[in-house]
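Q: Got a minute? One more chain.
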Amino acid sequence: MQRILFIVFRMFFEVIYYLIRFTHLGKDKYRDYEKMHALMQKGCRKAIRLGRVDLKVEGEENIPKKDGYIFYPNHQGMFDVLAFVSSSPRPFAFVIKKEAQNYPIVKQVINGTGSLPMDRKDLRQSIKVINEVTEEVKQGRNFVIFAEGTRSRQGNHVLEMKGGSFKAATNAKCPIVPCALIDSYRPFDEKGIKRITVTLKYLKPIEYDEYKDLKGQEIATLVRNRIVEAIGEE
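A: Always. Here it is, folded:
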């Protein structure tokens, strides 16, 4: 929290500017995913720099050149979003928990990126969101889905991933891109503002032909194992 306040203090007037711009680009008639991504990327990169965080990104060559894929990372905290926005060369949307949709700026980002809030307690609504993601990905949009369902709160330990989170990928027959976040919990969960390093590894995509015969939980285990190996946790 101290680092968040430190960043907001150093970017106070810019935060107001971004809030206004995000609100504008979030309106249907002005929505432009490319412009929104570029604007968010600019803001996130500056926030990371001013927040005394060094973001180390590996494996950018593994990101598919053709749109229509889903990133499946481990989930460590709020900084995860900044890491993806600042490093991804292509626009994408999030599947985000419903409880966060009314946070300041988050609401505007959801509208401007076409992200989808999910109510994890409502099975029917969750299925509807998965179906929406499927159709969006088929049309060439990219998504980030945190398959653990919640942040681990256990450092770099990766929780078990939920098989149902991969239904959108199997339905869309799209590439699955496992992503390993290392120490992403530290910027906003630890006290103080000392300089720290966060690592984001884009791992080799898993193409549809590689997972089409696997069940959801088998895919979840496959993705988790690759992330765990990349982190070097086990």
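A: The chain has ten helices and seven strands.
Q: Perfect, thanks.
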